[in-house]
Amino acid sequence: MKRPLKIGIAGLGTVGVGTVRMVQEHGASLSLSAGRDIKISAVSARDKKAERGIDLGSYKWLDNALDLATEPDVDVVVELIGGADGIAKELCQAAIANGKHVVTANKAMIAHHGTALAHACEAAGVSFAYEAAVAGGIPIIKSLREGLAGNRISRVYGILNGTCNYILSAMATDGREFDDVLKECQQLGYAEADPSFDIDGIDAAHKLAILASVAFGSELNFDAVHIEGIRHVSLMDMQFADELGYRIKLLGIASVSENGLEQRVHPCMVPTTSPISHVSGSLNAVVADGDFAETIVHEGPGAGAGPTASAVIADVLDIARGLKVPTFRVPAKDLQQMTPVAMSKHRGAYYVRLMLVDKPGVFADIASALKDHEVSMESVLQRTRDPGEAVPVVMTLHETEEEGVLGALAEIEAIDAVVEQPRMIRIENL
Amino acid sequence: MKRPLKIGIAGLGTVGVGTVRMVQEHGASLSLSAGRDIKISAVSARDKKAERGIDLGSYKWLDNALDLATEPDVDVVVELIGGADGIAKELCQAAIANGKHVVTANKAMIAHHGTALAHACEAAGVSFAYEAAVAGGIPIIKSLREGLAGNRISRVYGILNGTCNYILSAMATDGREFDDVLKECQQLGYAEADPSFDIDGIDAAHKLAILASVAFGSELNFDAVHIEGIRHVSLMDMQFADELGYRIKLLGIASVSENGLEQRVHPCMVPTTSPISHVSGSLNAVVADGDFAETIVHEGPGAGAGPTASAVIADVLDIARGLKVPTFRVPAKDLQQMTPVAMSKHRGAYYVRLMLVDKPGVFADIASALKDHEVSMESVLQRTRDPGEAVPVVMTLHETEEEGVLGALAEIEAIDAVVEQPRMIRIENL
User: Fold this and answer.
1) Buried-most residue among A155, A319, B28, B366 (CB within 10 A)?
2) The CATH number fitting domain A147-301+337-343, selected from 3.90.1200.10, 3.30.360.10, 3.40.50.80, 3.40.190.10
3) Structure confidence by residue, pLDDT tens digits, A30-39
4) Interface confidence (ipTM) of the complex
5) Is A323 in contact with B326 (Cβ distance < 8 A)?
6) Average of pLDDT values for B245-271?
């Protein structure tokens, strides 16, 4: 048997502790599967004395995580500190420079610096592995990069943030408003005190940028992701969605066409007949459309100690077995720079809700605004008419360019009888 | 760049042609992804003159597929002939003996001879790859063997036969009887003239035995799979299932417990809240329960030229990259021989439908039969009472051992007023 593979872990939060536990509990089977022993040799975290419920006694403790990069007894640095820049990035760069493999769960860092890191590690002949960065325990990076490697992938999309999906699912199931569910999530520890990273779609956008790169072999371009979160999703829109045969999900969608690369994260209405509409609670799902494999769906827990540790260890096993695979589908030097498609040029169907007080001529004004921008209505729904009080009017629009929809909505908002900002949710007939 | 990897393809049916097409269409991207060129050097099929819609002119034609095993210009033999024994097996054995890697879609051969083939190829230092044998384009073998490799997997199950799922979905959606849908499938070419391989569950059982081996690291034991097909699923049972909140699916389920390994293929009632109940048409799905990753679902097309070629080429790329991984999760010599759990010892919940003419005392007799076998009823459903005419009575039973259920049903069948053989479908609360 080959000599053991020695790993050093930076960061002993939930995922770090889960990773240590997995190595401790499954050591024998990891050895069988990898053909060599997997040993933790060193660990580093901010607080040595914190109670973590695991025995760290046999590992070298390093107060400074950066020392892992030069620790002779470490082959693989497992970076679980987090943050796009700062010590996490510094550690990864130093580890690569010292010829050590890197395994990381750090989606923010990859979204911002993935292309540079891929260049560095490929030049140094080491692995840069990040299964844990996207969709927790779902082996989606491996599926895209290896399992579907022969395909031209035209689109990859999914439910990429468990907190958002949990909130939206609870709103739909229990008929509660966003603020109410968010507050509960915060009390239960499912959402951060400052939840904006999750609910404003940034976390999902990090993951989407990574998925796009590994699916299409394109350079990471996080800045080109159009990002909208779920703060403005109301119970009323959920109820209308239900009536129209849709569910509201926060999706990340990346697609390539002759126009370039479109990357967007926003609430979507998806038909209840679509598999992704049934992914509920804190689960994640990722769907890839390949030209030969067709549509492949992956679903599972997107976060948590166990699932994320499972992904970290899968990467470690790959390294132990000597897997040589480009970081993002093709070698870093061959990654394409794809032209970003602006959101204004997005083509799709739309749900629009107006709140209006019924006045003579208002529908003519709305129709004229739509016509001005060459937008055509597919259906309209108005339940109650209560003169003097604002009532919701819901329209669905035929597939059209977003620019036109926004133009029409701006015109509609200026109509006297329209008393709130129109709400728009994109319809994805997945 | 390394020298090209040369493949020889045996069998030019749908999948063989799809594989050739994928190499021809995506040659450049395969090279980038693999770090070397992938070249088809030789092909073999029964009929050289058949019109296949692809240009085979640049490949060496071999009339005898077995010659691929000794062809100097072939590194990898892609076996797409099929059949558990005969030429397919002979070719794989000869290829391995000659130091060539093998890629195959042949589930029957692996189910029957997988352990021996794994021993042979590991001894010879070549790969034996079979992603295409289970669930078409879904990269489930890779997920189980690599992506989830750190987990102890306790259960793997799924919808493993597209023809059965298509028939059951059509019955449920269109309210048609089994025979009617099957006939249509045969006319459309979705089902074979002799459909027993699919609809009697044998194909699903082959795949289940393979999944069990790669999930649990156990020796293949196809003979221990309990197999029932879908011939006896009636529209009436589907309608009752619907009423009770279930859908009927043909599932393959393999699980490990302290008693050993349970492998079974049979129609199941699954709750409509379960993701797998929404997998419809000819799609496949595979679900794995890992101790760290939790429940991971994969879904996609389980057959067809494109999806199966996608899986074949993924295996070829792995070989091109020099992937070294045990054939079934752990090296062949370390595969466990697990004790099979007899179906009579299976514990689960049950749906039972009796057809009975209402006579005084019949319910007392039924209750007494259940009591004799310590089986307890959870619910009972009897819609109409039409004296003299047989009416359905549906019961669901609490979790119990199958032996008891079968004993009770034998006793119940002997009751005068029970006019047909009782129908039993296992309930899986997935």
Assistant:
1) B366
2) 3.30.360.10
3) 999 999 999 9
4) 0.95
5) no
6) 97
Arch. (CATH architecture) of A344-427: 2-Layer Sandwich (3.30)
Find out whether A423 and A234 touch, Cβ atoms under 8 Å. yes
Å between A354 CA and nearest CA of chain B? 34
Paired tokens of A55? 């025995």
How far apart, in whole angstroms, are the C-alpha atoms of residue B10 and residue A292?
20
Chosen for mutation from B21, B38, B287, B296 (greatest number of chain A CBs closer than 10 Å) is B296
First-to-last C-alpha distance (Å) of chain A = 49
Domain spanning B147-301+337-342: CATH superfamily: Dihydrodipicolinate Reductase; domain 2 (3.30.360.10)
Topology at the third CATH level for domain B5-133 = Rossmann fold (3.40.50)
Q: Are the C-beta atoms of residues B213 and B145 closer than 8 Å to each other?
A: no
User: Which pLDDT value is given to residue A257?
Assistant: 96
Q: Three-class SS of residue A374?
A: coil
B37-79 per-position pLDDT tens digit: 999 999 999 999 999 999 999 999 999 999 999 999 999 999 9
**Count of CB atoms within 10 A of residue A174's CB?**
11
pTM above 0.90, yes or no: yes
Residues of B forming the active site: 207
User: Which residues from A are below 8 Å from B310, CB to CB?
Assistant: 148, 150-151, 290, 292-293
Sign of CA dihedral B249, B255, B258, B261: positive
Q: Which residue of B has its CA nearest to A312?
A: B150
Residue ranges covered by each domain of chain A: 5-133, 147-301+337-343, 344-427
